[in-house]
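Working notes for the structural subgroup meeting. M.R. asked for a predicted model of this chain before we commit to crystallization trials. I am recording the input and output together here so anyone reviewing the notebook later can reproduce the run.

Input as submitted:
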Amino acid sequence: MLTLGNLFVLMLLATGGAWLWHNHGLREKALERVKQHCAKLDLELLDGNVALKRITIARDANGRRRLARVYNFEFTVTGEQRHPGTITQFGAHTVQIELAPYPFEIKPPQPTAEVIEMNQWRQEHNRWRH
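Returned structure, recorded in token form:
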């Protein structure tokens, strides 16, 4: 027989399950955003995951207090060192992605190989001598 107490426990379990399912979806969105951010910066996301660090109350851009989820992840530049990062979300909306300082190389522009015929070069340079 289903009593009011049993119904309350059942509803409590269902609510907890729905909350866990919703959090899993938000974690997947955070992971996708981190993957995009790392790809844009030519970084490699390590372990292919984000881990919930904490759930806290934070102020949004309008100054209102909202529930924020902060996830940790690790990335690498060279493949040798791990660097930490965090992503903060208000629901499915990404607030910020922070990366720890990491070394990076400034890539010089690739030289362009342009073939100039000798006759053309002579014509251009002889023109200025007149």
